[in-house]
Batch of 2 targets.
Target 1
Amino acid sequence: MTVPGRRRTPTRRRTAVALPVLAVLAVLLAGCTSIVAGEAAPVAGGRETVDQIRQRIDLGSLDPCDMVSPAQRAARNLGDAEPLKDSASLPACQWLGKGRSADSDRITFRLNDSVRDRAGDTGARVTDILGFYAIELPSTTYHACNLLVDVAEKQTLQVTHLADADPSGDACTSGRDFTESALRTLTRISRR
């Protein structure tokens, strides 16, 4: 004989078990986020906001050739760093593709420059990269993209990505990957 009253269904039991499991999973995944403006996020082993990172970055004291590690170069099939000395206020470094790759990447530190001033440029796409305010400027004449990242007050990290001439690809998408790697390196070395 069964006891009168509500009987627990298998669906209720599964829900009762699933909710705590989902809550624990959500907490664990929250620690795996990227940099988000104004929110704490793990970057190179720490938990900082973009604003905290921006306060300690000084591009004038860094070498743009240090922004890409040998592992990052190998992953993109890029050669060794080649320093460029265009001007004192625009220290730059470039990496050319090895072998059959026509890809190349250049990092320029634009001192006394504001990314936000470029938002009105023709074709500019305002975005964020790892939580940093950024602008993508795709080229209209060849398969390239300039990515300008506001890393500190009046300090811009500019990545110029020239991609293989594959019309189906977006140079800004592949350049963004390189820019993310450079930003991770920048946040790590700016702690020193």
Target 2
Amino acid sequence: MTESKKLSDVMQLMKGFSVITLIIGSFIYFLDASDEKVINYLEKEGYTNIELGFYRPFSCEKGEPNRDSFKARDNKGREITGVVCSSAGGGDFRVILDD
């Protein structure tokens, strides 16, 4: 195999990887619940001083693509952390508290 053929193969592989990464990133971005929806849900559940964190990829069920970590105070004033899981577009919320 010539050097230019090897380089061509590597470039094709990189293009394919870039396309796959773009598709996955777009899927996560467009299906994500807005921060406002997540905060509103947590407030309705009685949480205050809410700070949203990062996406937590393995925290929720398969059908719940949205996984936003958070830190807040519960109705007894205790600081808690957890993740808010929701369906695509930000419906059917569910809270999972960290231990």
